[in-house]
Write a structure and sequence with these properties.
Elements: H1 2-33, H2 88-99, H3 119-132, E1 134-140, E2 143-146, E3 149-150, E4 183-187, H4 193-199, H5 209-227, E5 233-238, H6 273-283, H7 287-306, H8 310-334, H9 338-361, H10 370-390, H11 403-416
Parallel strand pairs: 1-4, 4-5
Antiparallel strand pairs: 1-2, 2-3
Helix pairs in contact: 2-3, 5-9, 6-10, 7-8, 7-9, 7-10, 8-9, 9-10
């Protein structure tokens, strides 16, 4: 009986203990899920920083993307092309394609702008630019032009009211690039529009055809003197005929008929036999011939004075007799051997002829008597023959191109007359 009571008592105690534990667990659960209002955020009173930002819908792109103002380049495109790393043979082929004028049937031009790329390219390709191409020289009434470059202040046809002190033959200055040219083409025709307008101008400004004849002779002589070093050839001169006052305007081109120049190139008429014999004696160093040449020059001045051509005499006397003749005689006296005698004579004649041509440019040759014109032509021929006879022997052995190369060059000449280039 007592034992049953103990068991019942123990069961009651365990029941109430379990009930108390369950009640405590319920209180803890309620404490977790049911908190006082102060522990939670009141969204009716808080600011927008506690809320998630609103996301607006994006504008439609309509199937394309707006490009950027700047595009970052691909780093591979920044690597330069190493042109100078190409083999020399390939570089020369590219130079010729860019710098040499093509045949007349092609429309390809010349692009000398590559010479400004670098100093090495300029050094390698400059010679090729002037190797096969012609430099065109045009003689016009208002000036002489090599390509598009005016050659000094020289004015071939002087108008009466345009006379100046700096437009004579002394002021014909050839550009430096013409000395690099191997081939030169001179257009000496009077059929162009500029000369025809000068011939048909009113009386005060009308240009006589004798003026064209004299200026062509002067320009060709000056150009031949400029290029007479044996490395370049004046190969092509158009429309030069026998003159009425100056016996042959192209006589100076005889400087380029020696040393194996091909016969197909236009040249002057056969040389003056008297001038040729005198030149051979001058080159031999004959002092008597040297004195005869000086006497001929002085006699020409004397005949000019007695022919009442005082203008030509006054132009020649101060600069020639006082400066050229005296200096020449002094140098020849101090250095008189067989070789230097011929060289001094050539220098004297070149200076004399330069002043003589300047005088012819400044007056009307039609007013000169026939005997004076004959003496002038003799001096002009003699100076050219002396230049031929006394020139350096190394220029006689200059190699001449093959016939095929010359044919190709002349075809390019025809093309260059139609295609404008920038050789100057």
């Amino acid at each position: 009986m007592w034992h049953r009571c103990s068991i019942l008592h123990f069961s009651i105690i365990r029941f109430f203990s379990l009930t108390a534990a369950i009640a405590k667990i319920q209180v803890d659960i309620m404490a977790v899920f049911i908190r006082p209002p102060a522990l939670f955020k009141n969204y009716d009173e808080c600011d927008t920083s506690y809320t998630a930002p609103s996301i607006e819908p994006a504008e439609p792109t309509w199937g394309y993307t707006q490009p950027k103002d700047t595009v970052t380049p691909d780093r591979r495109e920044l690597v330069p092309f190493r042109f100078l790393d190409l083999p020399p043979e390939l570089r020369n082929h590219i130079y010729r394609e860019l710098l040499a004028l093509p045949a007349a049937s092609s429309d390809r031009g010349c692009y000398p702008q590559i010479l400004a790329a670098s100093k090495q390219i300029n050094d390698e390709a400059t010679g090729l630019l002037y190797e096969d191409n012609f430099i065109h020289v045009h003689i016009l009434p208002d000036g002489v032009f090599a390509r598009n470059t005016r050659c000094g202040s020289y004015v071939p046809a002087r108008r009466r009211h345009h006379k100046r002190h700096d437009d004579g033959l002394r002021h014909l200055v050839w550009p430096a690039f013409i000395r690099k040219a191997r081939f030169v083409s001179v257009d000496a025709t009077d059929k162009v529009k500029e000369w025809q307008e000068a011939f048909s101008s009113p009386h005060p400004d009308r240009i006589r055809r004798s003026v064209h004849e004299v200026c062509v002779s002067n320009v060709l002589w000056s150009l031949c003197i400029e290029l007479n070093d044996g490395q370049r050839r004046l190969l092509h001169v158009k429309h030069v005929t026998k003159g009425n006052y100056v016996s042959s305007p192209a006589y100076a081109m005889r400087m380029y008929t020696q040393g194996g120049i091909p016969n197909r190139i236009q040249s002057a008429e056969a040389g003056d036999e008297w001038a040729r014999r005198m030149a051979s004696k001058v080159s031999a160093g004959c002092w008597k011939t040297h004195l005869i040449v000086i006497w001929i020059c002085l006699a020409l001045l004397w005949r000019t004075v007695y022919a009442h051509s005082s203008t030509l005499y006054l132009l020649l006397f101060p600069s020639l007799v006082l400066r050229i003749l005296v200096d020449h005689l002094v140098e020849w006296t101090l250095d008189a051997d067989r070789f230097t005698t011929g060289r001094h004579t050539a220098i004297f004649l070149r200076s004399f002829v330069s002043e003589l041509r300047h005088g012819l440019h400044c007056l009307d040759v039609r007013s000169l008597p026939d005997d004076v014109l004959t003496g002038i032509n003799e001096i002009l021929h003699l100076e050219v023959e002396v230049e031929l006879a006394t020139k350096d022997k190394r220029r006689r052995n200059v190699a001449v191109r093959a016939a095929g190369d010359l044919d190709r060059i002349f075809r390019r000449l025809q093309a260059s007359e139609q295609i404008p280039t920038l050789l100057g």
